[in-house]
Design goal:
About 5% of the residues have low confidence. The longest helix is centred in the C-terminal third of the chain and has 17 residues. This protein folds into 2 domains: about 160 residues, no CATH class; about 120 residues, Orthogonal Bundle (Lysozyme), CATH 1.10.530. It contains 13 helices and 9 strands. The two termini are about 30 Å apart. Helix content is about 35%, strand content about 15%. β2 and β3 form a beta hairpin.
């Protein structure tokens, strides 16, 4: 994400009295589109994007290219209480991370932490409009292109990050093509738009044109395991890969948006809604239907709570995983109708 550079630095003694109480997580929101407007978004533009048909949520945040520990970095300023819903579930569940961010700390991605030479619980010089010393709270997988680090909105204001320079849009009710066209009409040609939805291809056949992960989860459950709620597939897809944002291989060798091990894929992989040919573990149009088929065979076909828990446990042999999938599925059930 190409962010502007704030005005030259003055001097500040550090985070000082910056305190923002953290708040419990408010559910999970899947970001589909990142928009960057160098001059900042207006209230009217944000209202217009929220009014687009199929848009569920929009969140704006500050940002700029500043200096962290002597190195350039793209830093955004967020409200921890609201932004927490927009990150992967395991990151959102890290209470220590969000308390540290709310208290004025710095959070960075794994790659940025290594590049910037950051060690947890140590203070580092951060230079924007002013120079501050911030404690590095920890690392987080943010799954937002071009973002190196986070600070809270009060620290952001002191650093001089550009107000509302960017926004995330969640739009499960429309296609990426329609969404980008309507956002472009609102923001003009100078805005930068980044597809965060995983690049789901449009198949040549199937129950209808599948153009979003939300529709793919619904159609896969309906066709391959009618007694399985699509929300369970959605929860597994988000937990395993962030809906195709991290397709592996994992440290154990799992691949694709649903993270199948090679042996498991050989047994359960099918040519689902994708192009005719051998099943492709990297193609969500094959991987998601294959996961539905496997879950069905492992107990989800019974349509009972016990059968569902058994099926999810077979997918990943851990009780915590079963509980996490069911909790996230319940959130999706309440949020998407």
């Amino acid at each position: 994400m190409m962010l502007p550079v704030p005005p030259g630095p003055g001097v500040s003694g550090g985070a000082g009295p910056v305190r923002t109480a953290s708040a419990p997580q408010r559910g999970i929101i899947l970001p589909d589109l990142l928009v960057v407007v160098p001059g900042g978004l207006t209230g009217r533009q944000l209202a217009s994007m929220r009014a687009i048909g199929g848009v569920r949520a929009v969140t704006a945040f500050d940002g700029a290219r500043i200096t962290v520990n002597g190195h350039p970095a793209s830093v955004i300023g967020v409200s921890p209480a609201s932004f927490r819903s927009w990150v992967p579930p395991r990151v959102a569940a890290d209470q220590r991370l969000w308390h540290g961010l709310a208290a004025g700390g710095l959070v960075a991605t794994d790659a940025a932490a290594r590049r910037l030479g950051l060690t947890a619980n140590r203070g580092y010089r951060v230079i924007g409009r002013v120079a501050m010393t911030l404690s590095f709270t920890g690392r987080a997988r943010l799954a937002i292109a071009g973002v190196d680090a986070l600070v809270n909105s009060r620290v952001s204001a002191r650093l001089g990050l550009v107000h509302r320079v960017a926004a995330l849009i969640s739009a499960p009710g429309t296609t990426m093509g329609v969404l980008t066209a309507r956002v472009r009409a609102i923001l003009g040609r100078s805005a930068r738009l980044v597809d965060l939805a995983g690049g789901l291809p449009v198949p040549g056949a199937g129950p209808g044109p599948i153009t979003s992960y939300l529709q793919l989860f619904r159609d896969s459950a309906a066709r391959y395991c009618p007694r399985l709620s699509w929300t369970v597939l959605a929860a597994i897809g988000q937990i395993e890969s962030g809906d195709g944002r991290n397709i592996g291989p994992s440290s154990a060798g799992a691949l694709g948006p649903m993270q199948f091990m090679p042996g498991t894929w050989a047994q359960w992989g099918i040519d689902g809604f994708g192009p005719s040919g051998p099943p492709d573990v990297l193609d969500p149009l094959d991987a998601v239907p294959s996961a539905a088929r496997m879950l069905c065979a492992d107990g989800a076909s019974a349509g009972t709570a016990a059968g569902l828990r058994q099926a999810i446990f077979a997918y990943n042999h851990a009780t915590w995983y079963v509980n996490e999938v069911l909790a996230l599925a319940a959130q999706y059930a309440g949020q998407y109708h």
